[in-house]
Design a protein that fits this description.
Elements (H helix, E strand, L loop, with lengths): L5 H12 L3 E3 H24 L6 H21 L8 E3 L4 H25 L6 H19 L4 H22 L2 H25 L9
Antiparallel strand pairs: 1-2
Length: 201
């Protein structure tokens, strides 16, 4: 077909034949991009409690996100053309996890407001996001997501503890910027080393 390489046509046939077969390139682009953008969102949210250095925080956040996205979309790892075999109904399961996360976060936000402790919301949301990575680890057969879940869980616990011992502003800063760092790290690993996406399958 004109304008379509043999490899692209092969990938297209794979997708039509088996919906649970996905190119590593597709997973790399989607995974790294989503992680980097959510990391940026966390950093922007956290910069509000760091007024004296907010411009610096925002500049660094945009720079890190830009580098990750440029590497993600411009780098062409040799493993990108490989096909990954995911479990049956992986897309349905992914949608279920995403749909469950939304009301969980809404409840956390409502609970923080109702309790008169909005500063606890970032740490609690980080905990919800951490938990949601556990099923994603199995859906995408990506052991690295266990580390992401652990990192976000650790950030959430430290953020909650900071609320009681160091004050609400510190708690918000720890939870938001800590979550951003974890997600940037995950995005960078996916962007630079797509083989980390899978368990060797």
């Amino acid at each position: 077909m004109a304008g379509i390489t043999e490899q692209e046509e092969k990938l297209s046939r794979h997708h039509r034949a088996a919906p649970n077969e996905v190119s590593r390139r597709s997973l790399r682009l989607a995974g790294a991009t989503i992680m980097a953008l959510f990391a940026l969102a966390w950093a922007i949210a956290g910069s509000g409690v760091l007024a004296p250095v907010r411009p610096v925080v925002l500049t660094v956040a945009v720079a890190i996100t830009s580098v990750v996205l440029i590497v993600t979309w411009k780098l062409r790892p040799t493993q990108d053309a490989q096909i990954r075999q995911l479990r049956d109904h992986w897309w349905r399961d992914f949608q279920i996890v995403g749909a469950a996360q939304v009301p969980a976060i809404a409840l956390v936000i409502a609970g923080g407001i109702w309790a008169g402790a909005p500063a606890l919301i970032p740490a609690a949301v980080a905990l919800v996001v951490a938990v949601h990575f556990i099923p994603l680890r199995h859906i995408f057969r990506t052991p690295m997501y266990s580390a992401t879940a652990g990192g976000l869980g650790f950030v959430a616990v430290v953020g909650l503890a900071s609320f009681w011992f160091l004050g609400p502003e510190t708690s918000v800063a720890v939870a938001t910027l800590g979550s951003a760092v974890v997600l940037w790290g995950t995005a960078a690993l996916i962007a630079f080393s797509p083989t980390r996406l899978d368990d060797g399958a």
